[in-house]
Each structure stands twice: as C-alpha cells, then as structure tokens.
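Hey,

The postdoc asked me to send both predictions to you directly instead of through the lab channel. I've kept everything plain text so nothing gets mangled by the mail client. Protein one:
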Amino acid sequence: MANEWGPLWGLVGDWHGEGGLDTAFSHSRNQVLGTPYLEKVTMKPFGPVDNGSQHLYGLDYKTAMWRNDEENPFHTEVGYWLWDGATGEVLRGFVVPRGITVLAGGNAAADATTFSMAADLGGTNYTIGENQYLADKASSISYRVSITVNADDTWSYEETTMLKMAEFPEPFAHTDHNTLRRV
C-alpha cells in the first residue's frame, strides 16, 4: 500500500519542528532578518484520484509557523502533495493566505528519500499565481524546494522563493528550512 504514495509515504503523519529559520525582508525593520520559527504540519493520505487513465495518490496537508511565543502564526498553508506513480511526477499545490497559489512539480523515483519540486511565475505546467498587490510590490518569480526523508523518523526541507521586490534592484532570495519530527 505504501508504494502507491511513492516518495510521499514517508511524510504521512503529524509533525513538529522547532529549528526552522526564515530569512526574509522585514518591512517593520527595513532589513533582512533570519528569524527562528516553530512549525506544525499535518499530512493525511488519500487516493486514488483518477484523471482518465492517470491515478494520483496524495497527502492533504496543513502547516503553520510561529515566531517565539506568538499566539497567531505568521505563516500558514493548505494544499496537496501528489504522486503519479506511472510517470514519477511529484507535485505540491498550495495556497498561502497572502494571495499566492503555487503548483510546483518535479520527478522522483518511487523509493526516493530526496526529491525536488519547482515552479516559476508564468510557468507552463508548474506555476505561481499571485494577487495584484504582490505582483506590484513583492512578486514571487520562482519557487524551489528540496525534501529529504530521514531514517530517524524526521524529514527536512530547504526552500527558496525568489522575489522581485520594490526594496531591491535585483531579485531577493527568501529562504526557509526546517527539520520536522513525527509527533
């Protein structure tokens, strides 16, 4: 049964990570800051979802991140991770309530413990959608994420979102990384 979810199977469950680091531009301080964060993620399996002859297996996921002792998270996401075993395509589709949607994708072996996904603004298959305000002030021009499922019941990610920001003449790399442990 696990092989139906391919490389996503190791991500099923509830996760907690305390060592996250968000490197981003702080508008309130007018500088780039590296901010530690706590993260909670839930990933629930489902499937198959049939598109004609295509059969996808997926994870329904939610994540939230908090700085220090904040009551409300500074970042949340909801979405799906999907696996197409026939083609080796792995997908992550998510919405961030700042007015951004991302469909990132890549290829991986069914037994991969490391895989990557990418999306580009205006991409043909893997793309980024954003509201008008963000398009004008902080446009996400690309998104890259690498996932590693570890043998010690943890998983890690490193992601980079390249932003075209009014504050910088060149694209700015907003990065996040964390290691999560199964709860």
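Protein two:
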Amino acid sequence: MTERTRSRRDDRAQTILDAAGAVLRRGGGRALTIDAVAAQAGLSKGGVLHHYASKDALILALVARKLEELRAGISACEAEAGPQPGPAGLGLAMVAHLREAYCEDDDFSRALLIAAAENPEALAGYRAFVAERLERLASAEPPGAGAMLFFAILGLVMGRTLGFHDIGGAQAEALFGALERAAGALGTGARP
C-alpha cells in the first residue's frame, strides 16, 4: 500500500468517526447505526463497514479516540506546567485540563459513555485510563489523597456529563481552585 493510499484510508476512517460523533451528538446512542453514519459521512454502508466491521467496532474506535484526546490534553498540561514532581504534577495537570475542557461537548460524551456501557470491551479503555492515573497518584501523601482527587475530578465531570448537575461559572471556578489546591498539596502530606 502506498503512503498516499494509506493517508486516504486514514482520512476516510477519521471522516467516518467524525460522522459517528455527529450522529451521537444529534440523536444519542440509539441513533448510532451504520446506515446513519454512512448517510452523515456521505458514504455507502459498505464504505463504512470496510473501515469498521460493526457498530461495536465503531464505538471502540470512538472511545479510543476520546481517550487519546484526554491523555494528550493532560500530557500537554503537564508539559506546560514544567517539571513538577510526582503525583502533584499529574494532579495539577488533570485539574488544568479539566478547567480547559469542562463542559466541552457534553452531549457527545454522554452519548458515547452510554453506548460504551453496553460494550464491556469499550469500557476496558476507560478502566485502563483510570488504573493508569490511580497508579501514578498512589504515592501521594497523605495516603489516599491522590485517589480522592482523581475521583473528585471524575465525579465533577461525570455528574456534568450525565446531567446530574450544571455547575458552571463562578461555582465551577471555585471548585477548580479547591481541586488545584488539593493537587498542589499531593506529596507534601499537607491538607489543602
């Protein structure tokens, strides 16, 4: 396969994922069908199936892309913050990324989470992400503080994603500030 052919194939796969995201945003997980994605992408059903053999394969690819975006966002925040040792650096990066991405595309995230919940294989990516973060935060002092910070962030995000609350504005900023103080205290044993 030539580089040009590979590039076109990758572009087509991304176009399909973009179309699947649009279908999810507009109609939720129930609307996500190969036919709907094909129509949104301007492709035949066979064209979609050539890249993604099933709806489950499409969901797996969407979850993988979302997790890659999340990892990249947190890594970028870690790089911007400069060398910050141990769990405090990761905690501060997670809070910085949360501040940047909070309320971003709640409809897509909600629909993707619901669609992924029906597929244990798709949830494996989320579980691995959580396990990686908890492992990196495990050395925080006092014991359990890193996990507490992670689950506070997760609770804020998931609560918003699932529509349990609509915290925003000054209230969200106050929470981000409290999370940032807690992250900064990781490893010191100090209380935020």
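Summary for protein two, as requested: The mean pLDDT is 88.

Thanks,
C.
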